[in-house]
From TrEMBL:
Name of the protein this chain belongs to: Nitrogen regulatory protein P-II
Quaternary structure and partners: Homotrimer.
GO MF: ATP binding; enzyme regulator activity
GO biological process, one term: regulation of nitrogen utilization
Similarity comment: Belongs to the P(II) protein family.
Coiled coil, from the record: none
GO cellular component: cytosol
SMART domains noted in UniProt: P-II (SM00938)
Pfam family, one: P-II
Residue positions where O-UMP-tyrosine is found in the record: 51
Swiss-Prot/TrEMBL keywords: Nucleotide-binding, Phosphoprotein, Transcription, Transcription regulation
Length: 112
């Protein structure tokens, strides 16, 4: 099993969710986060005063899938979330050693 962690732009969330559902992803965790990377924030003017925005709003997706499905999920996120502009996000892939469904006690692939 693989844990795929992706950060994307907030306005891309619904499009990415639809793409993942379309390829058979049955669940994901979504968190609103703030962060910075290459863009290193920006400045804005609020009520006449300029201030620095050091952290940019992002969405973090966490998806656990079978190892055989991981490449398909990564490709779906990559193509759907891409705008071609700075700040499109990142995708990380980690191994998952065990999964347990709390309600039924099912483990590993059955728990997904």
């Amino acid at each position: 099993m693989k844990l795929i962690i992706a950060t994307i732009k907030p306005f891309k969330l619904e499009e990415v969710r639809e793409a993942l559902t379309g390829i058979g992803v049955r669940g994901m965790m979504v968190t609103e986060i703030k962060g910075f990377g290459s863009q290193s924030g920006h400045t804005e003017i609020y009520r006449g005063a300029e201030y620095a925005v050091n952290f940019v709003p992002k969405i973090k997706l966490e998806i656990v899938v079978s190892a055989s499905m991981a490449d398909q999920v990564i490709e779906a996120i990559k193509t759907t979330a891409q705008t071609g502009k700075i700040g499109d996000g990142k995708i990380f892939v980690l191994d998952v050693l065990q999964a347990v469904r709390v309600r039924t006690g099912e483990t590993d692939a059955d728990a997904l």
